[in-house]
Protein backbone atom coordinates (compact mmCIF):
# COMPACT_ATOMS: atom_id res chain seq x y z
CA UNK A 1 0.00 0.00 0.00
CA UNK A 2 1.18 3.56 -0.71
CA UNK A 3 2.59 5.45 2.23
CA UNK A 4 -0.23 7.61 3.68
CA UNK A 5 2.31 10.34 4.24
CA UNK A 6 3.06 10.53 0.51
CA UNK A 7 2.31 13.79 -1.36
CA UNK A 8 -1.15 14.53 -2.69
CA UNK A 9 -1.89 12.48 -5.80
CA UNK A 10 -3.07 14.07 -9.03
CA UNK A 11 -4.59 12.34 -12.02
CA UNK A 12 -4.44 15.43 -14.19
CA UNK A 13 -1.96 14.86 -17.04
CA UNK A 14 -0.82 18.48 -17.11
CA UNK A 15 -0.55 19.07 -13.38
CA UNK A 16 2.88 20.17 -12.27
CA UNK A 17 4.69 19.77 -8.99
CA UNK A 18 8.18 20.51 -7.69
CA UNK A 19 10.57 17.84 -8.93
CA UNK A 20 11.64 16.23 -5.68
CA UNK A 21 14.56 13.77 -5.60
CA UNK A 22 12.06 10.90 -5.36
CA UNK A 23 10.11 12.10 -8.41
CA UNK A 24 13.36 12.46 -10.35
CA UNK A 25 14.41 8.96 -9.30
CA UNK A 26 11.13 7.51 -10.52
CA UNK A 27 11.16 9.38 -13.83
CA UNK A 28 14.74 8.35 -14.48
CA UNK A 29 13.69 4.76 -13.82
CA UNK A 30 10.74 5.20 -16.19
CA UNK A 31 13.13 6.26 -18.95
CA UNK A 32 15.11 3.06 -18.47
CA UNK A 33 11.94 0.96 -18.52
CA UNK A 34 10.92 2.44 -21.87
CA UNK A 35 14.41 2.04 -23.31
CA UNK A 36 14.48 -1.64 -22.34
CA UNK A 37 10.85 -2.67 -22.79
CA UNK A 38 9.20 -0.03 -24.97
CA UNK A 39 6.25 2.09 -23.96
CA UNK A 40 4.08 -0.99 -23.52
CA UNK A 41 6.31 -1.99 -20.62
CA UNK A 42 5.79 1.28 -18.77
CA UNK A 43 3.81 0.31 -15.69
CA UNK A 44 3.93 1.57 -12.13
CA UNK A 45 5.27 -1.76 -10.92
CA UNK A 46 7.99 -1.81 -13.58
CA UNK A 47 9.10 1.68 -12.57
CA UNK A 48 9.13 0.75 -8.89
CA UNK A 49 11.24 -2.32 -9.61
CA UNK A 50 13.68 -0.38 -11.76
CA UNK A 51 14.00 2.35 -9.13
CA UNK A 52 14.50 -0.24 -6.39
CA UNK A 53 11.55 1.16 -4.42
CA UNK A 54 8.61 -0.54 -2.68
CA UNK A 55 5.57 -1.36 -4.79
CA UNK A 56 3.15 1.57 -4.76
CA UNK A 57 5.85 4.25 -4.77
CA UNK A 58 5.23 5.38 -8.34
CA UNK A 59 1.43 5.32 -8.06
CA UNK A 60 1.66 7.50 -4.96
CA UNK A 61 2.77 10.32 -7.26
CA UNK A 62 0.99 9.47 -10.53
CA UNK A 63 -2.04 7.26 -9.99
CA UNK A 64 -2.83 6.56 -13.65
CA UNK A 65 -0.61 5.42 -16.49
CA UNK A 66 -1.69 8.50 -18.43
CA UNK A 67 -0.49 10.77 -15.64
CA UNK A 68 2.83 8.91 -15.51
CA UNK A 69 3.29 9.26 -19.27
CA UNK A 70 2.51 12.99 -19.14
CA UNK A 71 4.95 13.53 -16.27
CA UNK A 72 7.66 11.64 -18.14
CA UNK A 73 6.96 13.57 -21.36
CA UNK A 74 7.38 16.87 -19.50
CA UNK A 75 10.51 15.63 -17.75
CA UNK A 76 12.18 14.49 -20.98
CA UNK A 77 11.12 17.55 -22.98
CA UNK A 78 12.24 19.95 -20.23
CA UNK A 79 15.66 18.28 -20.11
CA UNK A 80 16.11 18.75 -23.85
CA UNK A 81 14.79 22.31 -23.78
CA UNK A 82 17.17 23.25 -20.97
CA UNK A 83 20.15 22.01 -22.99
CA UNK A 84 19.04 23.86 -26.12
CA UNK A 85 18.29 27.02 -24.14
CA UNK A 86 21.81 26.96 -22.71
CA UNK A 87 23.22 26.52 -26.22
CA UNK A 88 21.19 29.49 -27.43
CA UNK A 89 22.49 31.65 -24.60
CA UNK A 90 26.08 30.75 -25.48
CA UNK A 91 25.51 31.44 -29.17
CA UNK A 92 23.90 34.81 -28.53
CA UNK A 93 26.69 35.86 -26.19
CA UNK A 94 29.50 34.81 -28.53
CA UNK A 95 28.03 35.83 -31.93
CA UNK A 96 29.56 32.71 -33.49
CA UNK A 97 30.09 31.90 -37.15
CA UNK A 98 28.33 28.98 -38.83
CA UNK A 99 31.15 26.49 -38.20
CA UNK A 100 31.15 27.24 -34.48
CA UNK A 101 27.37 26.90 -34.31
CA UNK A 102 27.46 23.55 -36.11
CA UNK A 103 30.24 22.32 -33.84
CA UNK A 104 28.32 23.27 -30.71
CA UNK A 105 25.17 21.56 -32.02
CA UNK A 106 27.13 18.40 -32.87
CA UNK A 107 28.58 18.30 -29.34
CA UNK A 108 25.08 18.68 -27.88
CA UNK A 109 23.70 15.90 -30.07
CA UNK A 110 26.53 13.59 -29.05
CA UNK A 111 25.74 14.35 -25.42
CA UNK A 112 22.12 13.34 -26.03
CA UNK A 113 23.14 10.20 -27.90
CA UNK A 114 25.13 9.15 -24.86
CA UNK A 115 21.83 9.39 -22.96
CA UNK A 116 20.15 6.61 -24.94
CA UNK A 117 17.24 6.34 -22.53
CA UNK A 118 16.39 10.02 -22.91
CA UNK A 119 16.14 9.87 -26.69
CA UNK A 120 14.26 6.57 -26.83
CA UNK A 121 11.74 7.80 -24.25
CA UNK A 122 11.17 10.93 -26.33
CA UNK A 123 10.68 8.92 -29.52
CA UNK A 124 8.28 6.46 -27.87
CA UNK A 125 6.24 9.25 -26.27
CA UNK A 126 6.09 11.18 -29.54
CA UNK A 127 4.60 8.15 -31.27
CA UNK A 128 2.14 7.65 -28.41
CA UNK A 129 1.08 11.30 -28.74
CA UNK A 130 -0.25 10.57 -32.23
CA UNK A 131 -2.97 8.51 -30.50
CA UNK A 132 -3.39 10.56 -27.32
CA UNK A 133 -4.80 14.09 -27.59
CA UNK A 134 -3.68 15.18 -24.11
CA UNK A 135 -0.15 13.93 -24.60
CA UNK A 136 -0.06 15.49 -28.06
CA UNK A 137 -1.05 18.89 -26.69
CA UNK A 138 1.72 18.71 -24.10
CA UNK A 139 4.39 17.76 -26.64
CA UNK A 140 3.18 20.31 -29.20
CA UNK A 141 3.63 23.03 -26.57
CA UNK A 142 7.15 21.85 -25.78
CA UNK A 143 7.99 21.62 -29.48
CA UNK A 144 6.79 25.18 -30.07
CA UNK A 145 9.15 26.35 -27.33
CA UNK A 146 11.98 24.38 -28.92
CA UNK A 147 11.31 25.94 -32.33
CA UNK A 148 11.44 29.40 -30.76
CA UNK A 149 14.82 28.65 -29.18
CA UNK A 150 16.21 27.25 -32.45
CA UNK A 151 14.98 30.36 -34.24
CA UNK A 152 16.95 32.46 -31.73
CA UNK A 153 20.08 30.40 -32.41
CA UNK A 154 19.60 30.90 -36.15
CA UNK A 155 19.25 34.63 -35.69
CA UNK A 156 22.41 34.72 -33.56
CA UNK A 157 24.25 32.97 -36.40
CA UNK A 158 22.91 35.47 -38.95
CA UNK A 159 20.32 33.13 -40.48
CA UNK A 160 17.03 34.92 -40.00
CA UNK A 161 14.79 32.68 -42.08
CA UNK A 162 11.54 32.89 -40.16
CA UNK A 163 9.68 30.48 -37.92
CA UNK A 164 8.86 28.00 -40.68
CA UNK A 165 12.54 27.41 -41.38
CA UNK A 166 13.23 26.87 -37.69
CA UNK A 167 10.39 24.36 -37.52
CA UNK A 168 11.72 22.51 -40.57
CA UNK A 169 15.18 22.50 -39.06
CA UNK A 170 13.90 20.99 -35.80
CA UNK A 171 12.12 18.27 -37.78
CA UNK A 172 15.31 17.60 -39.73
CA UNK A 173 17.34 17.39 -36.52
CA UNK A 174 14.89 14.78 -35.22
CA UNK A 175 15.62 12.63 -38.26
CA UNK A 176 19.37 13.12 -37.97
CA UNK A 177 19.31 12.15 -34.28
CA UNK A 178 17.31 9.00 -35.02
CA UNK A 179 19.69 8.00 -37.81
CA UNK A 180 22.70 8.68 -35.57
CA UNK A 181 21.18 6.57 -32.80
CA UNK A 182 21.24 3.57 -35.15
CA UNK A 183 24.92 4.05 -36.04
CA UNK A 184 27.93 2.71 -34.13
CA UNK A 185 29.11 5.28 -31.56
CA UNK A 186 32.45 5.66 -33.34
CA UNK A 187 30.71 6.83 -36.53
CA UNK A 188 28.33 9.30 -34.98
CA UNK A 189 30.43 12.46 -34.87
CA UNK A 190 31.39 12.24 -38.53
CA UNK A 191 27.80 11.53 -39.53
CA UNK A 192 26.48 14.43 -37.46
CA UNK A 193 29.08 16.88 -38.76
CA UNK A 194 28.31 16.01 -42.38
CA UNK A 195 24.55 16.05 -41.87
CA UNK A 196 24.56 19.36 -39.99
CA UNK A 197 26.77 20.95 -42.63
CA UNK A 198 24.37 19.82 -45.37
CA UNK A 199 21.40 21.20 -43.45
CA UNK A 200 23.23 24.50 -43.02
CA UNK A 201 23.96 24.71 -46.72
CA UNK A 202 20.35 23.96 -47.58
CA UNK A 203 19.18 26.66 -45.20
CA UNK A 204 21.60 29.21 -46.65
CA UNK A 205 20.32 28.59 -50.16
CA UNK A 206 16.64 28.55 -49.18
CA UNK A 207 14.58 31.67 -49.95
CA UNK A 208 13.53 33.75 -46.99
CA UNK A 209 9.85 33.10 -46.13
What would your notes on this structure say?
With 209 residues, this protein is mainly α. Helix content is 74%, strand content 0%. It has nine helices and no strands. It comes from Nocardioides agri. Keywords: DNA-binding. GO terms for molecular function: DNA binding. Residues 43-62 bind DNA.
Beta-strand level of the residues, as a percent range?
Answer: under 5%
Show unreliable segments.
Answer: 1-17
CATH architecture group name of the domain at 66-204: Orthogonal Bundle
**Number of extended strands:** 0
Q: What class do helices, strands and sheet pairing give?
A: mainly alpha
Share of helix, binned: over 70%
Q: Could you tell me the radius of gyration in angstroms?
A: 19 Å
> Looking at CATH, which topology of the domain at 66-204 would you report?
Tetracycline Repressor, domain 2
Largest sheet: none
Overall mean pLDDT: 82
Query: Overall 3D geometry?
Result: elongated
Q: CATH superfamily assignment of the domain at 66-204?
A: Tetracycline Repressor, domain 2
Ends distance: 58 Å
Amino acid sequence: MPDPRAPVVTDQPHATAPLSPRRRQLLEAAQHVIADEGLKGLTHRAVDRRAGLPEGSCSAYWRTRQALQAALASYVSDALLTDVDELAARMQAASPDEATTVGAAVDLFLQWLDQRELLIARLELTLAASRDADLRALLVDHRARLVTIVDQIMCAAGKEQGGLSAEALVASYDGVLLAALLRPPADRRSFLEQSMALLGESLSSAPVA
